């Protein structure tokens, strides 16, 4: 497989850095071709502005989605955005690695998605029949994605009754609203808890967990999200009453409850 590793941590000597280094070695030892976008090392610009869109930005006032779509169609996106899109086009799978900060991604990684997943590429894609292709369909359909994250909280605090909320819920926006929205099959995350106080034994466990997941990157069953155009939702994109009757919340968007 071709694997793109998108990495967002400012310290290469961190736990995250050690896991990234071992993960890339593991992929290559398994025979995969791996490339990396180390966003801090690249000094990635996370801020969307008119400079992203070339001449398309001078057509009218800056309506980001529509201007980005014109720039994408005309080949006028800035070179750094195009380079990342080319990596994504090359990849069969994407590893997205970051420390969990304030319940989400570091700003530099959020800005990577903002600038790279533009309208006409990551979203706003239509099929031949005119349907909008998203939530399981789209330009990035057929690719796999897995989130690798470190969290300062201990595992119970990110569990179903933990004060931080369940990790699946914390990651729902990224898993479902970004990666799956753009068409990718999303694998269960690899999470390292208590990351600020990791013993050598804990690191070895985390390393082995990541190695195991990478060794099954092609076969691990994705999170069973419902597709938009599979018939489960009505014309207003509301789940039909015969599915998960009487239930609400994020879990209704799964075709079945995940094991574990």
Automatic annotation (TrEMBL):
Keywords: Oxidoreductase
GO molecular function: oxidoreductase activity
Matching InterPro entries: Flavodoxin_fold, Flavoprotein-like_sf, NAD(P)H_dehydrogenase_qn
Top EC class of this enzyme: oxidoreductase
Enzyme Commission code: 1.-.-.-
Residues in Flavodoxin-like fold domain copies: 1-209
Pfam families given in the database record: Flavodoxin_2
Record-stated family: Belongs to the NAD(P)H dehydrogenase (quinone) family.
PANTHER family documented for this protein: NAD P H OXIDOREDUCTASE-RELATED, NAD(P)H DEHYDROGENASE [QUINONE] 1 ISOFORM 1
Protein name as annotated: NAD(P)H-dependent oxidoreductase
């Amino acid at each position: 497989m071709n694997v793109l590793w998108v990495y967002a941590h400012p310290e290469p000597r961190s736990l995250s850095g050690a896991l990234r280094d071992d993960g890339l070695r593991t992929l290559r030892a398994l025979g995969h071709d791996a490339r990396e976008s180390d966003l801090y090392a690249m000094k990635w610009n996370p801020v969307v502005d008119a400079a992203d869109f070339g001449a398309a930005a001078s057509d009218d006032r800056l309506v980001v989605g529509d201007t980005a779509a014109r720039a994408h169609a005309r080949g006028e996106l800035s070179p750094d955005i195009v380079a990342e899109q080319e990596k994504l086009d090359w990849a069969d799978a994407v590893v997205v690695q970051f420390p969990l900060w304030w319940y989400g991604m570091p700003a530099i990684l959020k800005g990577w998605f903002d600038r790279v997943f533009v309208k006409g590429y990551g979203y706003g894609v239509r099929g031949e029949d005119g349907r909008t292709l998203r939530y399981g369909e789209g330009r990035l359909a057929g690719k796999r994605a897995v989130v690798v994250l470190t969290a300062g909280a201990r595992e119970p605090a990110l569990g179903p009754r933990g004060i931080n909320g369940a990790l699946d819920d914390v990651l729902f926006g990224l898993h479902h609203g970004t990666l799956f929205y753009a068409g990718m099959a999303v694998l269960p995350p690899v999470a390292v808890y208590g990351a600020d106080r990791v013993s050598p034994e804990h690191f070895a466990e985390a390393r082995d967990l990541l190695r195991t997941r990478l060794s099954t990157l092609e076969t691990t069953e994705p999170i069973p999200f419902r597709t938009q155009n599979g018939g489960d939702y009505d014309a207003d994109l509301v789940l039909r009453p015969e599915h998960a009757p009487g239930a609400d919340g994020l879990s209704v968007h799964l075709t079945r409850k995940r094991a574990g």
